[in-house]
Amino acid sequence: MISMTLLVALVGFALLFDFLNGMHDAANSIATVVSTRVLKPQWAVLWAASFNFLALFVFGEHVANTVGKGIVDAAVIDATVIWAALCGAVFWNVATWLLGIPSSSSHALIGGLLGAGLSKAGFSGIVWSGIFKTVAGIFVAPALGMILALVLVLAVAWTSLKLTPLGVDKRFRKLQLVSAALYSLGHGGNDAQKTMGIISVLLFSQGMLGDTFYVPMWVVLSCYGAIALGTMSGGWRIVHTMGSKITRLTPAQGFCAETGGAITLAIANIGGIPISTTHTITGSIVGVGAARRLSAVRWNVASNIVVAWFITLPAAGLVSAAVFFATRFVASL
């Protein structure tokens, strides 16, 4: 058992990660609506943050349960594991944010948890079914987002045959407000729950939840509030990358990208799959650009983003493992 002071400090650190997650992933929710000039940046972040928080009334706690019980065996979890996992995730989030790289906060957290769990208990402490589900999401989420966005582009083109370009633009400037809201709901519903799972499993490891793992309401409210505040703080380096460097977007294309991403996130939230919102919206944006013509996508930028996807899990895991062993060493002195 750890002291209440240390427990409070770890919960606060987890909420800091949640805040950074919102700031780092603000681009996921608002890049398209800003790049198409449907909303000014300050209004876009407020719009996205509001729906990030409202997601608590829409989705259950399936993703939180997966992160809390389905990545590392709950019996392995202790304060040192959580501390090391959060250090790995926060380090990678801050590093990629400073570099303007839209990496995955979700996979940084899971990589950190894996690194710390492996350092403590080896492979026996890993819940492989949860790992397979998460790794599958690395490939499935962007692919599904891209396919859905392509289908939506075709549907929009078919239903807009009788409209002038100005008429199409006017229609989808309004509809993009809806698609941005739906995407922000999915973003909050997936990403806030990952921190909910981390805090809840920490409380469970300290015997504060009894014999049954669950997510207390104060944890739910705190995590959704933290990610919403983080989104409100922005993340303009990554907004620029996501909103304009990959491909140029019109309001109709922004609607298709956000809606394709929102559907993908809703499926993942219901299935309890901790996917990356960054991967999802990137795949959707690439799909929209490719629907116009392959040369409309800046493939060099997209390829750099994909490289960041694959190194996030091991990079955060290595930092986490280093912090775990360093903490153990210091504690033994």
Automatic annotation (TrEMBL):
This protein's record includes keyword Transmembrane: yes
TM segments?
45-64, 76-95, 107-128, 135-158, 213-239, 301-326
An annotated Gene Ontology molecular function? phosphate transmembrane transporter activity
Chief location bin: membrane
Give the highest taxon in the source lineage.
Bacteria
Q: Which GO terms describe its cellular component?
A: membrane
**A GO BP term, please?**
phosphate ion transmembrane transport
Pfam families the record matches: PHO4 (PF01384)
Task: State the UniProt keywords alphabetically.
Answer: Membrane, Transmembrane, Transmembrane helix, Transport
Q: Where in the cell is it found?
A: Membrane
Q: How does it sit in the membrane?
A: Multi-pass membrane protein
What is the name attached to this protein's record? Inorganic phosphate transporter, PiT family
From the broadest rank down, the organism's phylogenetic lineage runs: Bacteria, Pseudomonadati, Pseudomonadota, Alphaproteobacteria, Sphingomonadales
